[in-house]
Amino acid sequence: MAIRYTATTILWATIVALIGPNLAVAQQPKVQADLISAVDHIQPGVPFTVGLSQRITPHWHTYWKNPGDSGEPTRIEWSLPDGFKASEIRWPVPDAIPVGPLVNYGYSDTLLLPVPITPPETLDTQSVELPAKA
After folding, report:
1. CA separation, residue 9 to residues 20, 70, 120 (Å)
2. How many CA atoms lie within 13 A of 12 on its CB side?
């Protein structure tokens, strides 16, 4: 029995061979991120700090607010309760990350991105959730 290879078959085989291994890698998380708080209790109108903790896979990195020649900085999209306000991330000093002739700025290993949160002047609840998408 003879097997016939058309140009389409060869093209699909090439695409699968090139992309297939990369799909498996892309599905593994490179950064484990968690929100942590500096306080157990909040007071009305008194700012407190929440941090985005990142554990970064070895030989991988995330980017600073000015990423350099390539990359995008971490962003946090808050879904805060009414009256709560999130300030900007307080960025730690980054490391220079050379990539060939380019220089990026960012972080490796572990990172904490602190964000001041200000609750409203009055609180009528015993617990508060601070959902965010990073």
Report:
1. 16, 36, 62
2. 4
CA atoms within 13 A on the CB side of 33: 17
Rounded CA gap, 90 and 71, in Å?
A: 19
At 127 the pLDDT is: 84
The pTM assigned to this predicted structure is: 0.75
Q: What is the Rg, in whole angstroms, of the alpha carbon atoms belonging to the chain?
A: 22
- Among 122, 52, 40, 113, residue whose Cα is nearest residue 81: 122
Contact call for residues 27 and 53 (beta carbons, < 8 A): no
Q: Which of 76, 81, 111, 120 is nearest to 93 (CA)?
A: 111
Q: Residues near 118 by Cβ (< 8 Å), separated by ≥ 6?
A: 45, 46, 47, 84, 85, 87
CA distance 60 to 31: 9
The pLDDT assigned to 122 comes to 92
